[in-house]
Write a structure and sequence with these properties.
- With 126 residues, this protein is mainly alpha-helical.
- Helices cover 59% and strands 0% of the residues.
- The protein has 2 domains: 42 residues; 57 residues, lambda repressor-like DNA-binding domains (434 Repressor (Amino-terminal Domain)).
- It is built from 6 helices and no strands.
């Protein structure tokens, strides 16, 4: 495979597809080397692209979900329940450290995108 820098969203998407195809490569093979190099390139691109682009973690989460075709139902599997995912996405409850960890591990979103402080929606008194 010809490795090249990731300069834009198209390069990024192509690298993710290639990473997925190499995911089961055996350690010590050329394919596994390509997997490691591409993973590093993707991580570098994400750090440069996502570091300060979002006003808050929930906006980053919405953006990521939109760009990668993720649904609130998929998020609910990561955070623990559909109600919790809904409340997080609506800024009714904050992301906690465990949720951030699971989201980062599952969707490979850089942690710095999700750990910035943000404001919750004011609670409506009944």
């Amino acid at each position: 495979m010809h490795l090249r820098p990731i300069r834009n969203k198209g390069d990024y998407d192509a690298a993710l597809i290639r990473i997925e195809s190499l995911w089961q490569a055996e350690e010590g093979t050329y394919e596994h080397d390509d997997l490691e190099i591409l993973s590093d390139l993707v991580q570098l691109y994400e750090q440069r692209t996502w570091t300060e682009d979002f006003p808050d973690p929930i906006e980053a989460l919405h953006y990521y979900m939109q760009q990668h075709g993720k649904t609130p139902q998929q998020l609910s599997l990561i955070v623990g329940s559909p109600l919790l995912a809904f409340k997080v996405l609506c800024k009714e409850v904050p992301l906690d450290l465990e949720m951030i960890w699971r989201i980062c591990q599952t969707w490979k979103i850089p942690a710095q995108c999700l750990i910035k402080p943000y404001r919750l929606r004011p609670k409506i008194e009944e």
